[in-house]
Specification:
Mean pLDDT: 84
Strand content: 15-25%
Structural class: alpha/beta
């Protein structure tokens, strides 16, 4: 079984077509077709359904995908044995929540790029955790960078990186910003800004025993936490946001954190990968960097 045929097979899955795979691998499309035909003949299975102008991976093709990933990853490790380790190449694909992409990921990506300048990095921003998990399930990404609770998840391996808190924050000019202690009842009397109401409704019940049930009636329910933060800076309401996102704005006195003793709303910064996906060298290098970055 030719290694290059397996690499081509995986590239077709990644790019969604024979022509895209040929372009990225600098092959002719006929070469890609021949390589897949060789694989199918050798294994005596059909790897792709060709319907119209689109291709769809078959069940047998999906089985081969997991083995192919492991074989390619092992071949890359074997190539580094003896002498100097080869410079890491290839592609790393990450799904990341909008808030993390703005507040956390750029510094980590900069360090990763400095260490592995030949690795291509693709980042898909996700509106919510479930969107990020969908990208993983469909093998559209290698890793998902998210914040959520510590629930156990089927099919995903989770690494907890950091605990954060969701807090109420407001512009310094807001009346509640001048109070030493703020109650949930006072919050409820004001305009509240949240992001993704269903997400907060789901996990607020677990962590606050329904104490937020009368709070989560937002004036603004936005899908972008950056937009929520900017509205709070403009004194359009009190925003419920993670501490890691607002640190810079608080330091610059653009926002302040309200002291709400009744509120205990932890979330955990974490990275996920699919349990059936082989850890590629590119993924392994990123996971090692996260361990260093968060002192794990």
């Amino acid at each position: 079984m030719e290694l290059r045929n397996l690499i081509t097979f995986l590239k077709i899955i990644e790019t969604g077509s024979f022509s895209n795979a040929a372009e990225q691998l600098t092959y002719s499309q006929s070469t890609v077709t021949v390589q897949i035909q060789q694989l199918e003949k050798e294994l005596n299975v059909q790897l792709f359904d060709r319907i119209g102008k689109k291709i769809y991976i078959t069940e047998k093709g999906r089985e081969l995908e997991a083995y192919a990933q492991q074989i390619v990853a092992l071949s890359q490790k074997a190539a580094a044995i003896g002498g100097e380790e080869q410079e890491l190449q290839g592609t790393l694909r990450i799904a990341c929540l909008d808030s993390l992409f703005t507040a956390v990921l750029p510094d980590i990506l900069r360090e990763y790029h400095q260490r592995h300048p030949q690795v291509d990095i693709i980042v898909k921003t996700a509106d919510n955790v479930f969107d990020a998990e969908r990208h993983l399930s469909q093998n559209e990404v290698d890793l998902a960078f998210i914040t959520h609770d510590q629930r156990s998840t089927q099919n995903f391996i989770k690494t907890i990186l950091l605990e954060a808190q969701l807090v109420f924050t407001a512009a310094p000019s807001h009346p509640l910003a001048k109070k030493d202690i703020v109650t949930l009842a006072e919050i409820a009397e004001n305009d509240v800004i949240i992001t993704n109401q269903q997400f907060y409704s789901d996990i607020s019940n677990e962590h606050t025993k329904n104490t937020l049930s009368y709070i989560i009636r937002p004036r603004f329910d936005l899908w972008n936490p950056i937009a929520a933060m900017e509205l709070a800076k403009l004194d359009c309401g009190i925003a419920l946001l993670p501490t890691y996102l607002i640190e810079d704005a608080v330091e610059k006195s653009e926002l302040c954190v309200l002291n709400v003793p009744e509120l205990h709303f932890p979330v955990w910064l974490q990275v996920l990968h699919h349990e059936q996906k082989a850890i590629t060298p590119q993924m392994n290098a990123f996971l090692k960097l996260l361990q260093e970055y968060y002192h794990l």
